[in-house]
Structures are given as structure tokens and as C-alpha cells.
TrEMBL record:
Tagged with keyword Disulfide bond: yes
GO molecular function terms noted in the UniProt entry: antioxidant activity; oxidoreductase activity
Species, as recorded: Rhizosphaericola mali
Protein name: TlpA family protein disulfide reductase
A Gene Ontology term for the protein's cellular component: cell envelope
């Protein structure tokens, strides 16, 4: 589930991308958004409650009851949300709620496609709808087993680099930033793995979410990074971040020599074991 901090960052990217000028907090706490949230929060609370209960040690009959309650509440939420979208499809706040719902309540591809179809019919030129559509398309396109979406960005030498340049290699696409402590904490282990498995065709391709070029370059220097690192001034809206639906870091995508996604957010030990088996 999204924390409030992550949601605020997400909404900032959302409004930044569609050209809104209001502040993050103003949008997150806007009366209209809060109105919709209050309408659906009882569903959200109930769904979260049964989801958390289902992960606890339970007797078989109790688990069945919890799961039935979870599925019942989710079904009611989906039906009511579908009706709400149908009745309010021209409202620009609706796609924003659907994005929140996708990340925080219900990731069902089937139901999100239903919402999309309604918006596509009734409000195809709504800029919020277009962003929601692109977001779901990106999420669908970066599933394990699918071809990794190509992208092109400048590296630390101002040379334009594309993912397809590395066909035939195992590539770990690693999204990071200078201010992200967990990201930088992974660099020592990544350097060991890059050296250990270089002969197996493994390499790291990093993409920075930094806002400022000097911060990105200083972090690379401090961490003694030698592999290819990509950055442009679009930050979270750069081509790779949009295509891979990146809204929080660290995140990584492992691509095989044929250009297919074989793992997402793989841990360093798992990565080592995977490469050792090849």
C-alpha cells in the first residue's frame, strides 16, 4: 500500500506531467479529491483490514471466511466505483482517483480496463485520462517475460545510449538518485557483482532520477561508479521512468540477452544466485 509521502510524490509527478501548476499538497488535499476519498474510504479500510487478516496464521475455516469477506468487499467496491466512473467520467479528478485506487486498493487489470473503456468513450480528451491510460499501458508492458521497452537517454559523457545497444547482455536497469540512501547503499555490492559476472555478459545500466546534473555527477564520483549512467533534466518524467512506470526508488529491472524482462526488483543475493546459474 502507498504511504502518504509516496502518494504525494506520485501526485506531484502526475500534475507535473499534465501541466498543472497547483502545489502537491493543494492537489492531494483538494476538497474534491478528499470528497471522493471520503466516499470510498470505508471500502478501502475494509479491504485493507481483510487483506491484512488473510496474512495472519488462521485455522482453515477462519481463513476461508476472511478471504470470502475480502472478495465480497472488493467486489462491492469495484461495482460501486464502476458506477461512479460511469456517472462522472468527464470529471478530471476521476482518473486521478483511479490512479490512487490502482496503487492503493485494487490492481485488477480486468476492472481497470473497464474504467478505461468508459473514460475512453466519454472523455477521451481529458488530460488526466491520457496519463492514467499511459500509466496502465506502461505497467502492463513491463511484466516479467515481456520484451523490455527500449529507451534512449544521454550518459555521463553526453553520449546517447539506448537499451537495445546491449542486446546479447544481461542488463540490470537500476533506477536511483543521489539523495536515495538505499539506492547508494547497493552500489558496493553492485560493483562486486558487475566485476564477478562481467565474463558472463552482465552489466549495470543506471538511470538517475536527480533533478540536478551536478548532484548526479557528484554522487557518481563519491560512489566511484564506472558503469554507464543516464540522466536528463526530465527527472521522474524521463523516457525510461515513464515507460517503466517508476514512481519510487530504488527499483531495478533485469533484462536477459534476448531483451526480455526476467526479474523485477531483484535483491543482490538473488541476482548473484541467478547469474551464477547461467
Amino acid at each position: 500500500m502507498l504511504s502518504k509521502k509516496i502518494l504525494i510524490v506520485f501526485l506531484f509527478l502526475f500534475f507535473q506531467n499534465i501541466g498543472k501548476s497547483q502545489s502537491i499538497l493543494q492537489q492531494y488535499t483538494s476538497s474534491h479529491f478528499k470528497e471522493i476519498h471520503s466516499k470510498f474510504s470505508p471500502y478501502e479500510d475494509s479491504i485493507h483490514y481483510y487483506f491484512q487478516q488473510s496474512s495472519q496464521p488462521l485455522l482453515p475455516n477462519d481463513r476461508t471466511e476472511v478471504l470470502n469477506n475480502y472478495n465480497r468487499q472488493l467486489s462491492i467496491y469495484r461495482t460501486d466505483l464502476l458506477a461512479f466512473v460511469n456517472q462522472n467520467s468527464s470529471d478530471s479528478i476521476v482518473p486521478q482517483w483511479l490512479i490512487y485506487s490502482y496503487f492503493n486498493i485494487d490492481k485488477s487489470e480486468e476492472w481497470n480496463e473497464k474504467y478505461l473503456q468508459i473514460l475512453n468513450t466519454n472523455a477521451p480528451h481529458n488530460s488526466s485520462f491520457q496519463y492514467f491510460k499511459e500509466e496502465l499501458e506502461s505497467l502492463e508492458n513491463v511484466q516479467v517475460g515481456k520484451p523490455a521497452p527500449d529507451f534512449t537517454l544521454p550518459d555521463q559523457n553526453d553520449k546517447f545510449i539506448s537499451l537495445h545497444d546491449y542486446l546479447g547482455k544481461y542488463v540490470l536497469i537500476n533506477f536511483w538518485a543521489s539523495w536515495c540512501a538505499p539506492c547508494r547503499a547497493e552500489h558496493p555490492e553492485l560493483k562486486k557483482l558487475a566485476a564477478e559476472f562481467a565474463q558472463k555478459g552482465f552489466l549495470v545500466l543506471e538511470i538517475s532520477m536527480d533533478d540536478y546534473k551536478n548532484q548526479w555527477r557528484n554522487a557518481m564520483k563519491q560512489d566511484q561508479i564506472s558503469w554507464t549512467n543516464l540522466w536528463n533534466d526530465q527527472s521522474w518524467n524521463n523516457a525510461a521512468a515513464r515507460k517503466y512506470a517508476i514512481h519510487q526508488i530504488p527499483q531495478n529491472i533485469l533484462v536477459d540477452p534476448q531483451g526480455k524482462i526476467v526479474a523485477k526488483n531483484i535483491g543482490m543475493k538473488q541476482l548473484s544466485n541467478f547469474l551464477a546459474s547461467k
